[in-house]
Each structure stands twice: as structure tokens, then as C-alpha cells.
Design a protein that fits this description.
The protein is flat, with a radius of gyration of 8 Å. The mean pLDDT is 63. By secondary structure, it is mainly alpha-helical.
């Protein structure tokens, strides 16, 4: 599991690759709109 800080930075960058992963995870569902 990645540190929350690492995940937070990825969300800020809005990387599409990580965005797809976040959408799969429950965390991504909550912050899916942030990832776009």
C-alpha cells in the first residue's frame, strides 16, 4: 500500500493511470471526482 501522502500527490497531479486505479479502489470512489 502506498503512503497517503503519495496518493494525495497523485490525485493533485491527476494522472490518468493512477486515476483508473483510484476508481477501482474504495478510496478512488470517494475522491473519483478529484481525479476526473
Amino acid at each position: 500500500m502506498y503512503p497517503l501522502i503519495f496518493i494525495a500527490e497523485m490525485i493533485k497531479l491527476g494522472d490518468n493511470t493512477f486515476g483508473k486505479i483510484f476508481k477501482i479502489t474504495s478510496f478512488g470512489e470517494s475522491h473519483g471526482m478529484l481525479v476526473g
